[in-house]
Design a protein that fits this description.
The protein is α/β, with parallel strands linked by helices. The chain folds into four domains: 7-224, 3-Layer(aba) Sandwich (Pyruvate-ferredoxin Oxidoreductase, domain 3), CATH 3.40.920; 247-434, Rossmann fold, CATH 3.40.50; 441-518, no CATH class; 523-644, Rossmann fold. The chain is built from 24 helices and 25 strands. It has an eight-stranded mixed sheet, with helices on both faces. Helix 2 links the parallel strand 4 and strand 5. The chain is globular.
Amino acid sequence: MEDKIKEISWVIGGAQGSGVDSAANIFSRTCAEAGLYVFGKREYYSNIKGEHSYFTVRISNKPIRSHRERIDILISFDAETIFRHAMQVSHGGIIICNLESINTSVNEVPTIDEEIHKKIAKQLGNNEDEVNVKKILEYVTKNSVTCYEIPFLKLLQDFSEKIGNPSLSKLARMINVMAISISLAMIGFDKHKLFNAINYTFHAKPKIAETNIAAAEYAYNYTTQLSKNKKDLFNGNQQSFSDIILVQGSQASAIGKIVAGCRFQTYYPITPASEDSEFLELNEIIEQLDGTKGSILVMQTEDEIAAITMAIGGALTGARTSTATSGPGFSLMAEALGWAGINEVPLVISLYQRAGPSTGLPTRHEQGDLLFAINAGHGEFPRVVFASGDIEESFYDTIMVFNFAEIFQVPVIHLLDKAIASSIMTFKKFDPNKIDINRGNLIEKFDNQVYSSRSSFKRFELTEDNISNRVALGTEHGIFWNTGDEHNEEGHISEDPEMRIKMMNKRMQKLDLMSEKISNEDKIKIFYENSEIIITSWGSTKGVILDTLDLLRDEGIKVRFIQIKLLNPFPTNLLEKLLNNVKTIINIEMNYSSQLAKLIKQNLDKDIDYEIVKYNGRPISIEELYITLKKIVNNDINNKRVVLDHGV
C-alpha cells in the first residue's frame, strides 16, 4: 500500500458460522466511529454452517456506495479463504493468516469445488496435488504483498493465561476481535475507536464487552511489536461521526416501516427477506413521540399464502400492513395479490429479489423479478411497482410506498434485493423533514347523517377520480362486502356487464391517476449534467454506477445516469423527454434478459444501444463496470450486449 492511503478494501473470510459477520460489523462500526465512510457487503452459501463465507468492507474519506474486487487487507482464519481470495490482494497489500493452516493443502478442504481447485493450480503453474497455503503466500509475496502468519490459538491461550481465565482459550470466536485489532493496528487506527465499537456491539453484555476489549488491546499491543508493522497509513480529513449513521440494508426498510406506522407484518422465513421481519420482531415495542408506547405485531405464518392473506386481513382492519418475501414466496402470493387488486386493498409487499428460477441461488443476488412483479396475478388490476437503489433510499421509499398504497388503494410491490439486504453503509442521519404520512381517503368515523342513515357503505363507490372512501372493518355505519368476484359499489357480487365495465374502468384508470399524482422526482432520479451518453438502470446497481461514473468524471468523461424508481405505471412521457436526442443509451441490470430494456422498448418503442448484464449471483464491481464503460466510450467494443462475470 501507499505511504498515505485514501481508502482501503478489507476482507475477512472463514467458515460460515465462525463469526465472520460479527467481526465485519465491529470493524465497520470502528471505521464509522473514526469518521470514515463505509460500504460493506456479505457473501455466503445457502447452507447453515460450514461453507465459505466472507465480508468485504470498503472504507474511504469520501462517500462510497459499492465494492471493489481489489483487496488491500485480507484476514483469514482458515485455508479456504487464502485459496479463494489471496490472488485478489493488491500490490503492497496485507494478508493476515492463521499460522496453524499454513501447510494445509487444497485437497484437504472439502468445500472447495473442483473448478476452483484447477484454477488455483493453473495460476500457480503447479500440479494440483502440490497446492497449499504456503505456496499461495509465496506466490503473492512476489507482488509485494506482506503476509503475517499469526499464531491465533497461541495468542488466545497466552491472553487467557494473562487474565487468569484458562477457559477463554476455548472461545475461538475471541480470535475474531483479535484479528480486527491486528488489522487496525497495522494501519494506525486509534484502538479506542475499536473499544467503542465493541462496547456498542455487546452493550447488553458488559462482561463480554470488557473481555473482548481486553483481548483486542492485547492483540493491538502484540502487533506493534511486529517488525514489518506499518503505522499511520490512513489519510486524514474524516467527517464527524455525529452526522452519520451506519445501517444494515435489511434493517433500513424495517425502520422505515416502523416510522411509516406499519403495525402488522406477516412473513414466512425465506432468504434474504427474513431479516426484515426479524428486525421488527426485535423492536416490536415502539416509543411514540409523545412518550407513550405502542407496538407492531409480526406474525410468522405457515406459508406465504397465509402470509399475504393474513396481511390483507390486517389491511382491511385499517392498520398499515405489509408482508416481506422473496421470489419463490412471491410466486405463491400471486392469487391473493389478485384478491387484493379487485378489492382495492392498500397492502405493501417487500419483495427482496434473489437469483432464480425455483430455488436458484437462494443467498445470491439478482434483479430477475421486475417483469414478474409488474405482471403477477391473473386478469388485469393496477399496482405500484417501486424500486429502491440503496440502503438510505429504502428507508424513505418504504414510508412513501405505504402512502401510495393508501392514497391509490392498491397493492404496492416494493422491489429490494439481496445486494441491499446484505450490505452495510454509512450515510447522513435520517431527516424527519423528508417524512410525510398520507393515509388517503380513510374515514375513521361517520359524523354525517347521510352516512349514518344508510344500511350499508359504498366502499367501491364510483367517483370522479376513481378513489372511493374506505373504512376499517368494524367502523359504525361502515357495513360493506368483500368478495373475490366482481361486485357493485357496496361490494355485492355482480355479473352485470355494465357494472363490470364501470368497475374495471374504476380500477384500471388509477394507473393514469398515479402517473399524474406521483411526482417526477419520485419516478426518476437524475445524476450529473446532461450528456450525449446516458445510462439507464434501476435498483441496487445505483451505487456501483455512481462510483464508476465518479472515476470517469475524474478523467473528463461525462455520462448521465437515469435511475428509474417507478416501474409501474411506467414513467413513459418523462423518460421519453430525457432520452430525446441522446447519442448513446447504455442499460445496466442484474438479470439475463435486460428486463428494463424490454420495458423501455415496450413503452417508448426505443432500442437500447448497449446492454450490460450480470447474472452470476454476485453484485457488479467497480473494476468490471469501469472497464466496460471505458470501452464503450472509446468505441472499443464490438458487442452490443456485455455479460459481466467477476466474483468469488
